[in-house]
Amino acid sequence: MDITLNQAEEVIKAAHVKAQELGIKIVAAVVESNGHIVEVKRMDGAPWGSIDVAINKAYTASAWGISTATIADECRPNGSLYSIHFSNNQRLITFGGGEPIYVRNKLIGALGISGGTADQDKECADAGVDALK
């Protein structure tokens, strides 16, 4: 079973709360395990350019089942995933802010956050994913 709309809303709400704590404006996107969009919400004042980035972070985390921050570590020259960002019609994002969402060890979707630094985006994504635990 994939993530539900109610679960997506819960995840996004928790991510927005963390963004407010950090003093940043973000876009949060949730996708199903197949990468299809469930919900996207942009905080007032968040950069509109962050919409596609958030969606693609969620897509990346869902496609590979791992954090985009982990992918970032492996994408460096000589890394095991070097040049992966050229795959999947160049939709893959290789910096922090995309997190897979697992329930009982089953991938049900992913959350992508954009608007802050990669580390801030990851903090917000972690807070969102933790809301379902």
Automatic annotation (TrEMBL):
InterPro entries: GlcG_carb_metab_protein, PduO/GlcC-like, PduO/GlcC-like_sf
Superkingdom of this protein's organism: Bacteria
Name listed for the protein in its UniProt record: Heme-binding protein
